[in-house]
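Tutorial sheet, problem 5. The four components below are modelled jointly, 262 residues in total.
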Amino acid sequence: MMIELDLQSEIPIYTQLMDQIIEGIASGRLEPGESLPSVRSLASDIGINLHTVNKAYTLLKQEGFIQIHRKKGVIVVQKEEMPQLTEQYLAKLSQQLRPVIAESLCRGLSQEQLTEIITRLYNDIQSQNKE
Amino acid sequence: MMIELDLQSEIPIYTQLMDQIIEGIASGRLEPGESLPSVRSLASDIGINLHTVNKAYTLLKQEGFIQIHRKKGVIVVQKEEMPQLTEQYLAKLSQQLRPVIAESLCRGLSQEQLTEIITRLYNDIQSQNKE
DNA sequence: ACATCTGTTATATATATAATATAACAGATG
DNA sequence: CATCTGTTATATTATATATATAACAGATGT
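Model answer (structure tokens):
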């Protein structure tokens, strides 16, 4: 999978990495059971340190999106093992969205406009092709 | 306005302050033209440093939500002066929402469920009473 | 067997951010 | 004229980010 980083962004590299892998899974570009590159090869490919990749992988493992086996290496979890819609997650989701929505409200974005943006993003992510 | 901070949160205090003031404006608890406490009194009230409040105020001023006059002090901008729906802001909004939506998609949240959550938050924020 | 690749762990360093502390300045207030 | 205001400067502490180098133990391929 193609990884694009902005090294000048205020968003940490390991966060950008996590975001892109999660979006890869969401879009289907990364399928359940699919292998991810080793920490060393991915770090080398995109020109960053091994530990930065390792941090992203470790957090993705903690959140349940990937598994790391001695034998199989780093793989995307199976569909049945994918993180679920827990109460805890829904609370986190609302907490993440709240300030974003508040600002858009201040700027006069209507509920319909906001819903349209969300819908467009949802479909954009879902309909991405491979590569 | 009541300010509630979580000093143990990984979200910086100045960010929590900004978020709460913006949500105050979005809800109408803070009206255009209304005064905000001085950096020293607010810092003293909530038990944090003056510079932390000052950082939040300075950033809110830069983004256009408040004004700081020698005479009037710190006030919420008038409705006509409120930050607008610029292309730049809409791009930032999509960038903020994208990874959040991607994760919810991985966890099996439907577009309808997501829209419902957004709508609930939008209305929650809008319908908050004073105090 | 042996070299190689794997995730993992440990240390160290440099840089940036966050938060606090203390001090001072200049404009405005009463 | 004392007091409060935002603002600026400087310093310190703690934490987060990213890198660098090294080592360990399990697994792989020849």
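Marking note: Residues 38-41, 54, 57-58, 68-70, 73-74 of chain A lie near DNA strand C (CB under 10 Å from a C1'). Full credit if you identified this.
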